[in-house]
Design brief:
single chain, mainly alpha, 3 helices, 0% strand, elongated
């Protein structure tokens, strides 16, 4: 790999690093998609009772944070692995 994408991954990428990077991108993308849906549906959620709206928002944000952390772990682990 050459050019701007060379820095975080190095020159020679193993299949294990590519797999870890792929899962990281899928999980972070799922988190982003979930947050986008929450943002689009927020006006209709706010019409519900306050307690229901709060729980829906909190649970959605919680799942998005879990997906984001789960996506960051393989990405962080793959960078040193690609340097070897």
């Amino acid at each position: 790999m050459r050019g701007a994408m060379k820095w975080p991954l190095g020159d020679r990428i193993s299949p294990q690093v590519i797999t870890m990077q792929g899962w990281a991108y899928v999980l972070v993308g799922a988190s982003s998609g979930l947050l986008t849906v929450l943002l689009l549906l927020l006006p209709s959620i706010l019409r519900l009772e306050l307690l229901e709206a709060r729980w829906i928002t909190v649970m959605t944000l919680g799942v998005a944070v879990v997906l984001l952390v789960a996506g960051c772990i393989p990405y962080i682990r793959s960078v040193p692995l690609s340097r070897r």
